[in-house]
Write a structure and sequence with these properties.
Chain A: Its main location: cytoplasm. The complex is a heterodimer of chains A (333) and B (750). Chain A has 333 residues and is of the alpha+beta class. Chain A folds into 2 domains: 285 residues, Ribosomal Protein S5, domain 2 (2-Layer Sandwich), CATH 3.30.230.70; 41 residues, no CATH class. Chain A has 6 helices and 14 strands. In chain A, the strands form 4 sheets. In chain A, strands 1, 2, 3, 4, 5 and 6 form a 6-stranded mixed beta sheet that branches. A 4-stranded antiparallel beta sheet of chain A has the order 12-11-13-14, sandwiched between helices. Chain A starts with 5 loop residues before the first helix and ends with a helix. Chain B is α+β, with helices and mostly antiparallel strands and 750 residues long. Chain B folds into 4 domains: 155 residues, 3-Layer(aba) Sandwich (Rossmann fold); 122 residues, Beta Barrel (OB fold (Dihydrolipoamide Acetyltransferase, E2P)); 89 residues, OB fold (Dihydrolipoamide Acetyltransferase, E2P) (Beta Barrel); 177 residues, no CATH class. Helices cover 28% and strands 23% of the residues of chain B. In chain B, the strands form 8 sheets. A 6-stranded mixed beta sheet of chain B has the order 8-12-13-11-10-9. In chain B, strands 14-15-16-18-17 form a 5-stranded mixed beta barrel. In chain B, strands 19-25-24-21-20 form a 5-stranded mixed beta sheet. The N and C termini of chain B lie far apart (84 Å). The chains are: A alpha+beta (333), B alpha+beta (750). The interface between A and B is large, with 43 and 49 residues.
């Protein structure tokens, strides 16, 4: 995005291809910059997180910075876009300061591209949490996942997906209880007390009753609720930057400008099953063939697992920090 | 330079500094609400002379607590749990219940969540001057604030908060009573947690917090005799679990849960409305609901299902072929055959044999009635499936003397008796009292506590006695209570709104410096008089009329300017709005506004200057209005007449002074106005007014009733008041066309 001259690009490419490969900040080809993550940053949202990649240790400046927030909304099934069982809608917006060189139209296009990548993966029905329904066929939760890119210093997709996963991990769904009224069909109970119809009413086997759930209530409004079902399943993204004959990870802006092709792979690692490839995408002007992609996928899986493990550990730390530790500090004050 | 520090609240502490909850809106959306919480160390404990708390706080709790309780000789304060306020409000409000009370914020919030009427009674309790009540904001004091644990229900969290506050208070009292050197250690007062929640009491005992149940607490009080009757029936459960509740057959269906009711009403399958009992037939009631033009009929006890007059209930409507027509026969609760009343004894009415008899009798009466009705008169019929809101209040009753088991006047044994409400719309109430024999023949106040499915009648408790039945005081008070007329004297907050000069208040001398004179016309020289019924003390209107030099007549109506004294949204304004009207009894009146205003400052008495609002017309001799103006004014009435007196004066040919001429002028205009009004199609809907003669002014016992004579002057005043109203209405509609309310009758073409 930042303008990089042809000479600069050639210089970066030849350094990467040299033996040993050289990068401007001295990293190896598969080394990441430092990643910082904090969850629960927006208390009014149902789940939120901030991720920054490559932030300066001294002044906290620089680096790629992304904030994700999930907000739940009650939606009626049937009217509009409401879907029985709930749905997830993602959107990415970029702060103009993140891309100062882009015109407003170009920025819109970029946002749209990012949104479509995110939506294709996270809004897919196969990954939808099972606890987004409220009343079957009537009400469900719409999970709005909004992502804001504050600054981009390269590797934006990895950052977006990390923030998305952290925010969704953090999301709690308020517990709802559906309330219903059992209407008796046909014979209503006569007021004549001689018949023993009263005995039938309330019996579970009474088939004359139809169940109509009309509304829901919040049984415990002080409670944040329960985590999204299957929050293990949210994938991580790994960007492989392809320069013919080699690939490298976590490219800076200049490096990104110098490579013709990027391969995004989206992996999730359910604890018991085999790794799951949730999607992939080639970006850029270059070309690639199937055998190359196959071997890249194998490498990508390995790197993605590292990212996954690191992220998992951090998310659990965050949960602990924000609840148990905070409570202990409160007690010992 | 003042130093400004910003207390930064790091996000890590959100668990403590923020309180989050979800709210479901009426439109079905769920909103997450965050409240900041600032914990502080300077929230006062409310005990007089506490060394540990800041001295600036106004404290109300005495230093040594209440020392009259048997169990707590060293003095104590009570700290009631939420369930005490929910179930025993009458006890707490009683004047005999005097211990200093600490009310926790947690408890207040829980009460508000559970019942708004009880919450407002609780709020009223905290603001009365006579009671020693301290509200402690425990959620904001850093030592007593708590954070909800994982897997903790809201109820458990609140109970823990209450125990924590009780524990803190007891520790804090040692600081309030530091040992004084050279003196033996004084025994410290205790803060006693009162709760009827057994589990909470057990936990408190484990944590060594003094605690006690309501009944045990009242037992140990010095005036327990009066107070034990006030205990509501719910409180007595644990003391007498011996009655085999499970063995009894249910007479009524259980109510559906609230959420189901709301869902059913929303879906249109159930209907919500106010329950109206039929005063001629205790086995019938109806509920007007919007879905039907006729109200939903409820026939029989089972279908009325424990609804009491005024309750907001939810009904289920039966199939159309089961619809019935209302009866027109009188079926009386007391008029039942003798076997019924005899066996319908308060203690054992649940026995099956009697039950069947009552049942048979009742269903026979119902069947007989409903079979002979023409189908055309049928209306929606249904049954009550739940209660949205009980509108139970204290009811005036008398004890059914036949239900007494022992009429020995000295017997203090606990008996169960029936109280029959004065209102025919209410069922009999079963209550347990020790004072039964002494209550016979008295009007008493009874509150309903609950109505179990196994009990034919609701259960209640005795609140207080109003006096001997048929004595004037008791009957008068019972009337006021039955019609819910607020008759208590005005409180301090209301009296504080009165001008500080009191009776000495006068209109200040005319000068722009006084706000009283701003925008006010000086009409003190006009010949104004008032005409009112005999003995009238609150003269709110006065009149005048005079001839103008151009041959027209100027007439004026002057209304006391109450708005000068009663400002909007003050305590006095709110109270007057709640009372709505002054209530006139035979020998006394219940004022809407304090007497200083009603009968003095806002009464247009003769020969004193008063503030008024005036409508002044210029009319032709034929009573055609030429011009009208409205102004605030200062007037000085020249005379206050009774109707008869004014009539005599008008008719006396010997009198020819200004005042008399003025009355004659008004009268002639009034006659023309009335003729015009009648010609325009006015209706005369007047009903005769009666006057009650009293024995003498001292004894004030009524001896005779007389219809009030109507004088020409009655109609004079009436006519001018109407004219003033129409002129003002016209003016407001002209000036505020958007907001003024005008009742526009459709115009008919003839």
């Amino acid at each position: 995005m930042a303008s990089t001259s042809k000479a600069e690009k050639a210089y970066i490419q030849s350094s990467l291809l040299s033996d040993p490969p050289l990068r401007a900040d001295g990293r190896g080809l598969i080394d990441f910059r430092t990643i910082a993550l904090e969850s629960g940053i927006a208390p009014i949202a149902n789940g939120s997180a901030r991720v920054s990649i490559g932030r300066n240790a001294q002044d906290g400046g620089g680096g790629t910075e992304v904030v994700a927030a999930a907000k739940l909304e009650v939606e009626s099934v049937g009217d509009g876009e409401g879907v029985d069982g709930g749905r997830v809608a993602c959107s990415v917006s970029c702060s103009p300061t993140a891309y100062p060189l882009l015109s407003p139209n170009a920025l819109d296009d970029l946002q749209h591209d990012m949104t479509s990548v995110l939506n294709a993966t996270l809004s897919h029905p196969t990954i939808r949490p099972t606890n987004l329904g409220i009343i079957p066929g009537m009400k469900s939760w719409l999970l709005n996942l909004d992502i804001i890119v504050f600054s981009d210093a390269g590797n934006i997709f990895d950052a977006i997906f990390m923030a998305a996963r952290a925010a969704l991990w953090d999301t709690k769904v308020p517990i709802t209880k559906s309330v219903q009224y059992r209407a008796k069909k046909g014979e209503t109970q006569a007021m004549d007390v001689d018949t023993d119809e009263t005995a039938l009413v309330g019996s579970a086997l009474d088939t004359r009753q139809t169940i109509q759930v009309a509304d829901f209530e919040l049984p415990d409004y002080w409670d944040e609720g329960v985590p999204l079902d299957g929050r293990q399943a949210w994938p991580v993204c790994l960007t492989l930057n392809l320069l013919p004959t080699l690939h490298f990870l976590d490219a800076t802006l200049q490096e990104e400008a110098s490579v013709p092709l990027k391969l995004l792979v989206f992996y999730s690692f359910p604890s018991d099953a085999t790794p799951l490839l949730r999607g992939m995408r080639l970006l850029g002007t270059g070309a690639s063939d199937l055998t190359q992609v196959k071997s890249l996928l194998k490498d990508g899986e390995k790197y993605a697992r590292n990212v996954w493990v690191a992220l998992e550990g951090k998310l659990k730390d965050e949960d602990f920090r924000r609840n148990q530790k905070a409570r202990e500090r409160f007690l010992n004050r | 330079m003042p130093e400004i520090t910003i207390l930064k609240r790091p996000r890590d502490e959100a668990v403590i500094t923020q309180r989050m909850f979800f709210k479901k809106t009426a439109r079905g959306k769920v909103i997450k609400v965050l409240r900041e919480r600032y914990l502080r160390d300077d929230i006062s404990c409310g005990v007089n002379g506490c060394k540990a708390c800041s001295a600036t706080a106004q404290t109300v709790l005495s230093h040594s607590g209440d020392t009259t309780h048997k169990e707590f000789p060293t003095g104590h304060y009570i700290l009631p749990d939420t369930n005490v306020f929910l179930a025993q409000m009458d006890l707490i409000e009683s004047n005999y219940f005097t211990p200093p009370i600490i009310i926790l914020q947690t408890v207040m919030e829980e009460v508000r969540h559970r019942s708004l009427p009880l919450y407002s009674r609780l709020k009223a309790l905290t603001t009365t001057d006579e009671r020693k009540v301290w509200v402690f904001y425990n959620e904001f004091r850093s030592e007593t604030a708590i954070v909800r644990e994982d897997d903790e229900t809201p109820n458990d969290r609140n109970d823990r908060g209450i125990r924590k506050a009780a524990e803190w208070y007891n520790a804090h009292l040692t600081l309030a009573h530091p040992p004084i050197r050279g003196q033996p250690n004084v025994a410290l007062p205790k803060v006693v947690l009162i709760t009827d929640d057994f589990a909470n009491r057990q936990k408190a005992e484990k944590e060594k917090i003094p605690c006690i149940s309501v009944r045990n607490y009242v037992d140990g009080m010095k005036n327990s005799d009066q107070l034990l009757d006030l205990l509501s029936a719910t409180g007595s459960d644990e003391v007498e679990p011996t009655r085999a509740v499970a063995g009894r057959t249910a007479l009524y269906d259980d109510y559906l849960p609230m959420s189901t009711l709301v869902a059913g009403v929303k879906a249109g399958q159930l209907h919500q409305g106010h329950f109206n009992a039929n005063q001629y037939n205790y086995l019938e009631g109806n509920v007007p609901v919007p879905a039907f033009t006729k109200p939903v009929l409820l026939v029989g006890r089972e279908n009325m299902n424990r609804a009491v007059q005024g309750d907001v209930v939810v009904v289920e409507v039966f199939n159309e072929r089961e619809w019935k027509a209302p009866t027109d026969e009188v079926i009386d609760q007391e008029g039942k055959p003798s076997y019924d009343t005899k066996n319908d004894d308060a203690e054992d009415s649940e026995e099956e044999g009697d039950d069947l008899m009552v049942h048979e009798h009742e269903s026979k009466a119902l069947r007989a009635e409903h079979t002979k009705k023409a189908p055309a008169e049928k209306q929606p019929t249904g049954r009550v499936v739940g209660i949205i809101k009980r509108n139970w209040r204290a009811y005036v009753c008398h004890i059914d003397s036949t239900s007494l088991t022992s009429s020995n006047a000295t017997s203090l044994g606990l008996q169960t008796v029936f109280a029959t409400p004065v209102s025919r719309l209410l069922p009999r109430i079963r209550l347990r009292t020790r004072q039964a024999p002494s209550l016979v023949g008295n009007k008493i106040l009874v509150t309903i506590d609950r109505w179990e499915i196994t009990s034919r009648y609701p259960e209640g408790h005795f609140v207080r006695t109003l006096g001997k039945a048929e004595s004037k005081e008791a009957e008068q008070e019972s009337l006021l209570l039955e019609f819910e007329v607020p008759y208590r004297p005005f409180g301090k907050a209301i009296l504080d709104c009165l001008p500080p000069e009191g009776e000495q208040w006068v209109v200040p001398p005319k000068s722009a410096a006084y706000p009283e004179w701003r925008d006010r016309a000086d009409l003190r020289d006009l010949i104004i008089c008032s005409i009112d019924p005999p003995g009238c003390q609150d003269i709110d209107d006065a009149l005048h009329a005079r001839r103008l030099t151009n041959g027209n007549i100027e007439a004026g109506v002057h209304i006391a300017d109450v708005s000068h004294f009663v400002h909007p949204e003050t305590a006095m304004d709110n109270e007057a709005a709640a009372r709505g009207s002054t209530v006139y009894l035979v020998d006394k009146r219940i004022d809407m506004l304090p007497a200083l205003l009603g009968t003095n400052l806002c009464s247009l008495r003769p020969h004193v200057e008063r503030l008024a609002f005036s409508v002044i017309w210029e009319m032709t001799v034929d009573a055609e209005i030429v011009d009208v103006r409205f102004t605030k004014s200062v007037i000085a009435s020249k005379a206050a007449f009774e109707y008869g007196e004014a009539q005599l004066r008008k008719d006396d040919p010997k009198l020819n002074d200004n005042l008399t001429q003025s009355i004659r002028l008004l009268n002639s205009l009034a006659q023309k106005l009335k003729a015009k009004r009648m010609a325009a199609g006015a209706l005369n809907l007047a009903s005769p007014e009666v006057k009650i003669h009293l024995d003498s002014s001292e004894s004030s016992d009524p001896v005779d009733v007389e219809q009030k004579a109507l004088h020409e002057t009655n109609s004079l005043v009436e006519e001018f008041m109407l004219l003033a109203n129409t002129s003002v209405a016209k003016k407001t509609q002209e000036s505020f066309p958007q907001t003024s309310t005008a009742s526009a009758a459709p115009t008919y073409k003839l």
